[in-house]
């Protein structure tokens, strides 16, 4: 027996005033409605309706059961409507995980515009530079900065690519000189990002297409791009950082870009979210907004 269908048939009989009217309202046969109500009574072990050839009446048990079943069906309908609204309008809490430097320096710049565009959404943003299991820790979407991502059970969408530049303070360059080719870095104090693969062996591509790899070293490494940028500003050494961390400081002359004729592999921004055939509107809205934000060439 389909209990849900039987509940609907029983309610329809009571509210329509008879089996025939209920059958017409449900667009099924009289026989189907009658059978569903009988199966319901058999499953409950009580008689819900007193029937005659012309009319029916609810038994005491039927009256009690009708009140409860009506509440249940109303709640189910309300739940279905709520879910339907969620499928078309982003609502509720969106939990986002992002790298610390990107969250503070880039995401913080456009997140208010995202919230303004979706007034029914709340955001819980968690920034850190450790590995985060999005599913285990209950995040809806994660942002990752990487040259490439390993295979994952998550859906991955590339949102943008950022150039990385070698920079130093004017004071450091006055004291230690300006590197002209990648090999010159071996004689400099280099600030290493500890979470990057092969951080001490950067590769460069010259304008003629040749690839140069050099081993670099220094006394400071950190798992935060902001720490390394701050150290570079203080004249501690040369740092390799994504463009979004450097633009303002370069514009003010606080940092100087070196080796401009040699490019580094692009640093990609990815959005990751759990596989789900029915992607929630809040995740879709965030990913689409971020993708549109970084569609322009100078968005970083």
Characterize the structure shown:
By secondary structure, the chain is α/β, with parallel strands linked by helices. It folds into three domains: 86 residues, Winged helix-like DNA-binding domain superfamily/Winged helix DNA-binding domain (Arc Repressor Mutant, subunit A), CATH 1.10.10.10; 97 residues, 3-Layer(aba) Sandwich (D-Maltodextrin-Binding Protein, domain 2); 100 residues, D-Maltodextrin-Binding Protein, domain 2 (3-Layer(aba) Sandwich), CATH 3.40.190.290. Helices cover 39% and strands 23% of the residues. It contains nine helices and 15 strands. It has a five-stranded mixed beta sheet with strand order 4-3-5-15-6, with helices on one face. Strands 11-8-12-7-13 form a five-stranded mixed beta sheet. It has a three-stranded antiparallel beta sheet with strand order 10-9-14, with no helix packed on it. α1 crosses α3, α1 packs across α4 and α2 packs across α3. It is rod-shaped, with a radius of gyration of 32 Å. The relative contact order is 0.13.
